[in-house]
Amino acid sequence: MSKKSNVWQFFYKASDTVATCGLCQRNYSRKGRGTTCLRNHLKSRHPAEFMTLSENIKYVVKREIGSSPSQHPTANLELKLNEPDPDPLETGHGNFGDTEDLLINARCDEKLALMMFLNQSFDLINGNGFISFVRTLQPRYVIHPKIYYEKILCQDIHRRIHSQIKQQVDLLDAISLSTSLWWGGQGEGLLSLSCSGITRDFRFNSFMLRCEAINFENAIKVSRSIRDLIPTLTIELPKDKIFCVVRDEFSAPPGSLPDCSAHRLQMCVRFALQSNEVLMNLSSKCKQIVDHFAASKMAHDHLKFIQEMRLKRDPCSILNTASSKWNSSFRMMGRLLRMKDAITLYADENSLIQVYPDEWIDIDLCLKVMQPCEEIMKIWSTPSTSASSVIPLVAALRDSLRTDVHNYVSSVTICSFARKLLEELEMKFSHITSDIKFLMATYLDPRYKQAFFTEREEQMVANEVLLQLSRVQDDRDGQPLMKISKVSSSASLKNESKIDSILDTMLTNGTTNTQQATTSFGSQSQIKNLLYLYNSEPRIGREMDPLLWWKTNAKYSAMFPIVRRFLSVPAASIASEGLFKESSNVYNDMQTVLSRENASKILLIKSNFNMFISRD
């Protein structure tokens, strides 16, 4: 056998009768054959390499890429979509090789679709570098038109996600819904509906039920979308499962305050700042400084030189934080304060607005007043943080602001700001001491129980618990009462958080009140005895997981249904903001070729990616 044909650049002889493909490493029998079968193999399995055989130009295949398949192979493997001609060298039995290749190609299609639409853009598919990269990894893989991958996501994967969401909802006995609306700077936005609940094995689950991409919509249309967000949901939600709905500032009914505690706190800070003319002028001056360095690379480099060479410090960069963020002023002033010396030197030598020494003091004190608000926002922004933390953290913030009003009495500006912030806090969070959702969630959290309750609130909770337990007494879902084993709380973790320090102090001082409250349940009935035992348990450390505590205390199984119901309520509803900021590529594509309907489906897939897709 003579190696005259250049087809042998892709094959080598394993023996006199067997040739091995250097691209896919498969062995093929060629007994009694020439090189025609080798060419046919390249044509079938490696079309890109086959086209390089100039002497066989007559065999170049005209690929039809205009037509798209009706269904992705992962949905129905019996459809042989875009399948090449059978390989004449295939020596396997039956169609095993074809089925295996189909599965591999389908897997590649799905992963490529997810990568393109969730993290990149439509334009990626046309890049020469990307095409070359894919062919290097998988020479036999054929890159399809963009609409093919869009269809995989918006039909096959979306259908699968929809089914998995329904399964998760079915596993929850009680759910809390959250609506959230976020606007970008170019008229685009995101409206979302989230679901949270606690499984029977006490795992907190949170996932997105619906996403609506908004693009240059008018107020009436947006209002209609908010109104229809839950009623038009394609997933059936039994009414007896829905415990409550938490709405953020922008999705709440007109004229009403949001249910979202995070947005209420944002409003407190915003109104307190806006009412303080001195701080508003100081914030405006800080923004002018930031804009000066953001607009001039020379000025930015000079400031960096002052920090490194003259002050011998690690350079900090001045970032112009987006004005849409609630804490933009806080972070901007904090960064400028850290660069105070360098900015002062620069201003002395250049035409830059001056910040005077007394103004730097006001900035410093203002940041100290706002620091607990920032810390609370971080806590509430965690999806697993429940409404049980609202009463304790508001109490700690109230205590911090009262201390600030007393300590900063010498500064009229800061004392006035702290007093106004305290007034806004009292007004916008006055409902939490009468809303049974917050009271019950706090009581059922073994970290807090009754530590922050007045006698009136203790009695409200006692009556509600007895009412709730009487309803579930005949339908208990846990184990029978077991031998009581007390669980001691672990030592509190040391940290530098101001709000944590205040909260720990309040909990330590409130121990006596908790023990006194147990006398209110001094009855001989089974339910009241159970509550007496729960109240007698020492509170666990704040760093511990309350759901794990309930899971390991099966003696309180009669309380499990109400625990899952009230601890499922999230402290905040801010899911749209994070998802929107991570999805700029989706909104860019929506301006060109991506429909709003498909953009909404892709956003839903992206929001649930870590919970569903990444597990596959």
Give descriptors for this structure.
alpha+beta, 7 strands, about 10% strand, globular, DNA-binding
Give the secondary structure arrangement, pairings included.
Elements: E1 11-13, E2 18-21, E3 27-29, H1 36-45, H2 47-50, H3 96-119, H4 128-137, H5 146-171, E4 175-183, E5 188-198, E6 204-215, H6 219-227, E7 242-247, H7 261-274, H8 277-295, H9 297-310, H10 328-338, H11 340-349, H12 357-380, H13 390-407, H14 412-428, H15 436-443, H16 455-472, H17 498-509, H18 511-517, H19 526-536, H20 546-551, H21 560-566, H22 575-581, H23 584-590, H24 596-607
Parallel strand pairs: 4-7
Antiparallel strand pairs: 1-2, 2-3, 4-5, 5-6
Task: Describe this protein's structure.
By secondary structure, this protein is of the alpha+beta class. It folds into 5 domains: 6-56, no CATH class; 98-144, no CATH class; 154-255 and 576-614, no CATH class; 266-426, no CATH class; 428-474 and 498-506 and 520-568, no CATH class. Helix content is 50%, strand content 8%. It has 24 helices and 7 strands. The chain has helices at 36-45, 47-50, 96-119, 128-137, 146-171, 219-227, 261-274, 277-295, 297-310, 328-338, 340-349, 357-380, 390-407, 412-428, 436-443, 455-472, 498-509, 511-517, 526-536, 546-551, 560-566, 575-581, 584-590, 596-607; strands at 11-13, 18-21, 27-29, 175-183, 188-198, 204-215, 242-247. The chain has a 4-stranded mixed β-sheet with strand order 6-5-4-7. A 3-stranded antiparallel β-sheet has the order 1-2-3, with no helix packed on it. The longest helix is centred in the N-terminal third of the chain and has 26 residues, at 146-171. The chain starts with 10 loop residues before the first strand and ends in a 9-residue tail after the last helix. Residues 54-97, 477-494 and 512-524 have low confidence and may be disordered.
